[in-house]
Amino acid sequence: MNEQPMNPFLAVLTTWKSYFDNYYEGLGTTYERVLLHKLFKRLDTRFGITSVLEVPSFGMTGVSGINSMWWAMHGKQVTVIDTDRERIAFIENVWKEVGLDARIMFHEDFTNLPFDKDTFDVSWNFASLWFVPELPRFASELRRITRKVIFISVPNDSGWGYRLREKYGRELPGIFLENIRPETVVQQFACEGWTLQETGLFDVPPWPDIAMKKEDLFQKIGLQKIMQLFSRLKKSKNNHQDQKSSPTIVDYYAGRAPHLEEEIMRFAILENAPNFFKRIWAHHRYFIFAPAKKGEA
Fold this sequence. Notes:
By secondary structure, the protein is α/β, with parallel strands linked by helices. Helices cover 34% and strands 16% of the residues. The longest helix has 21 residues. The radius of gyration is 19 Å and the shape is globular.
């Protein structure tokens, strides 16, 4: 069987199935998830979230369809939308294995979401906005079905890691790079009675934004000892990470690795770096939109 070549811009397009065989995502993706959890906690505290919609849900490297498990762990009603029926079957199995509840839905038309007005407290997505072909109509739909807050996270298009890979993204059909430009995101979502409440750069780890598991990067450049800080990742006899026995984010969601977040946060030494550094090193940017209060423009 011939496998599709891995695209250096967005490897998950061809590798997503493999993560359902082995949940180990690598340090980079696990770090992203933990940083997202911190932002989710802030959103929950600020807006009092009870219902969550993630759409589109495909985009993050790693196990697809589990980005909203943190919300489910904290008692929220979660709906996840994917555009691939085969992937949905895998996603449903992971949620069942973990023991968390969510409505996993197949839906392809982002311009006509099958929900009533103000159905969800928060609608959100991560690294998936560039899969949306008609962004203005999608943004309008999210505003229609969302009561309290829209949370959007996109790759940092000013980061040097993104800039190095961007040319490969231009070669991919169905990828709309203009959707992740900060000015585009703000223009499309901060309108029709909604305002930009907050934006910032995050996911600023001590490794570059490249399409490679960070453990493999450290191995290649001879920095294996840095992984000793991540004490729960055990080394196998050949000095590579024993990925089958390492704790994964799925283990965390299932309650089998309760200290994983604490271990991962050991690497968050640059999250409070100055903005001039974040602009070139941060991997992602976030935007928080909410309905304008009376008197706000």
